[in-house]
Design brief:
The chain is mainly β and 263 residues long. Among the domains are: 61 residues, no CATH class; 101 residues, no CATH class. It is built from two helices and 17 strands. The strands form five sheets. A four-stranded antiparallel beta sheet has the order 6-7-8-9. The chain has a four-stranded antiparallel beta sheet with strand order 10-11-12-13, with no helix packed on it. Strands 14-15-16-17 form a four-stranded antiparallel beta sheet, with no helix packed on it. α1 packs across α2. It starts with a strand and ends with a strand.
């Protein structure tokens, strides 16, 4: 239940039944200073957004078609980075420290799905890769982004939309050898997971067509290794079949069969 202050009176309301109204007059930094929450969409309703300040029972219902919210507070992140540089940290140490505390740079940690650090372009400097969700014109928009330090400031050097908010696994691998590392994201489904492979090219994230790359097996189960990809499926209870795929310079090819019989 949510405790709500209404004209000095305290009442209790279930979040699923918050009656939204259009509100305005909030300062530009209001959402960044508050906890942003929402009541998920059901077959009867649309998303209801609300915010509340930490330690406060005051709930502000947000039903504005022009509601926008950036999950990551870059100003706060860069202020933190400046303080760490003053302490003598190196750029890579700052990136690692920010990554370890990434949930402190957003009003709602649930809008960050995953974050990892890696040297994407193999230039000897560490970048941060994040899957997260923004609110743009009162609708969810899901992103994969790469952040880097430039002149001791974090900037978003590459960004691409993703179709879903459930990409909770990020692997950064040099599996397609001969260029920058690839970013592989996978959702939270144990069976038939959705996954995408992105290459980093000229400060752009380019999503690759996995079928054209040769990854056309029955992807009931998928596992990524340092130099190969395993795609397999359940033939019958306890018996699994599939293939290991390796990069041959132009596409992925089946290098050996995978069979497991646990019957």
């Amino acid at each position: 239940m949510i405790q709500k202050l209404t004209h000095g009176k305290v009442s209790y309301r279930n979040p699923a039944f918050i009656s939204p109204f259009k509100c305005g007059g909030f300062p530009p930094d209001f959402l960044n200073a508050s906890i942003l929450g929402w009541v998920p969409k059901t077959y009867k309703t649309t998303d209801y957004f609300f915010s509340m300040k930490k330690g406060s029972t005051d709930i502000h219902e947000l039903f504005d078609k022009n509601l926008n919210y950036n999950t990551l507070n870059l100003d706060k992140m860069n202020q933190f980075a400046a303080e760490r540089f003053k302490e003598g940290m190196s750029p890579d140490e700052v990136v690692e420290t920010v990554h370890g505390q990434i949930n402190t740079f957003t009003s709602n940690p649930k809008t960050i799905q995953q974050a990892v650090i890696a040297d994407i372009d193999m230039d000897g400097r560490t970048e941060m890769v994040i899957t997260y969700t923004n609110i743009e014109n009162s609708t969810w928009q899901h992103y994969l982004s790469v952040f880097a330090l430039e002149n001791n400031q974090f900037i978003e050097i590459a960004k691409s939309k993703t179709p879903d908010a459930n990409f909770i696994t990020i692997d950064v691998l040099d599996i397609m050898t001969g260029g920058n590392k690839e970013i592989i994201i996978m959702d939270d489904h144990y069976e038939y997971p959705a996954f995408s492979i992105f290459t980093y090219e000229n400060q752009h994230l380019v999503e690759q067509d996995t079928n054209k790359l040769g990854l056309n097996g029955i992807n009931q189960f998928v596992s990524f290794g340092a130099d190969r990809i395993l795609i397999y499926h359940r033939v019958t209870d306890g018996f699994f079949s599939g293939s290991y795929y390796i990069w041959d310079g132009t596409q992925f090819v089946g290098s050996e069969d995978y069979l497991y019989d646990g019957r």
